[in-house]
From TrEMBL:
Gene3D superfamilies: Cupredoxins - blue copper proteins. The chain crosses the membrane at residues 189-210. GO terms for cellular component: plasma membrane. This is Phytocyanin domain-containing protein. It comes from Populus deltoides (Eastern poplar).
Length: 211
């Protein structure tokens, strides 16, 4: 599905470029039609941008339990697939907890909050996963990280195929990742809808060149 949408976005860019080129090669009496084509081109660009955002998934950290001390974050994270463009949403009671992004693996293991890269405390913090790699988060409240209130997020490339979980990983995360299938289903529906909208717009634009 990601490949289909990628091709569709590329086609929309090609059609826009073709329309602009023909604007300078047609006679004045056909400028009205060219103007209409440019409007459609603008719509295609907007649709392409919306499609890109629609494909991004939101992961509520901890699932239904949220960012709380009682949540098993390791099991929750093992049941998720994080890709470039996705977002993490930390939901918690402001004033009781906070979110701190740690500088690396060592700081994560030792709960060294002194190496924090960023700190958030709104109670509904959103973090965009803008590149592949591993990121580390913990609660900034004294003692909470040591009690297990921390999570490691491994981000895959947005175009990389998902790899199946190992049997051991699947069994260990089955109890705490019940929200994962629902999140995956919603993400898939968004992808199908976005692809349908973009392909429909491309077909409509192509018809303008036929008549």
């Amino acid at each position: 599905m990601v490949g289909t949408v990628g091709i569709s976005v590329g086609l929309s860019h090609y059609i826009c470029a073709l329309s602009i080129h023909e604007c300078y090669s047609r006679k004045p009496k056909r400028l009205k039609r060219v103007t209409m084509e440019h409007k459609v081109c603008l719509v295609l660009v907007v649709v392409a941008l919306i499609t890109k955002e629609a494909m991004a998934a939101q992961h509520v950290v901890g699932g239904s339990q949220g960012w709380e001390e009682s949540t098993d974050f390791s099991s929750w994270a093992s049941g998720q697939k994080f890709k470039v463009g996705d977002q993490l949403v930390f939901k918690y009671t402001s004033g009781l907890h906070s979110v701190v992004e740690l500088g690396g693996k060592s700081a994560y293991k030792s709960c060294d909050l002194g190496t924090a890269l960023n700190s958030m405390n709104t109670g509904n913090d959103v973090v965009k996963l803008n590149k592949p790699g591993t990121r580390y988060f913990a609660c900034g409240t004294l003692g909470h990280c040591g009690q297990g209130m921390k999570v490691k997020i491994t981000v895959e490339s947005g175009t990389a195929p998902s790899t199946p979980e190992s049997p051991s990983s699947s069994s260990s995360s089955s109890s705490s990742s019940s929200s994962s299938p629902a999140a995956s289903s919603a993400s898939a529906m968004h992808s199908y809808f976005a692809a349908f909208v973009l392909l429909t717009a491309l077909v409509a634009t192509s018809l303008l060149y036929m008549f």
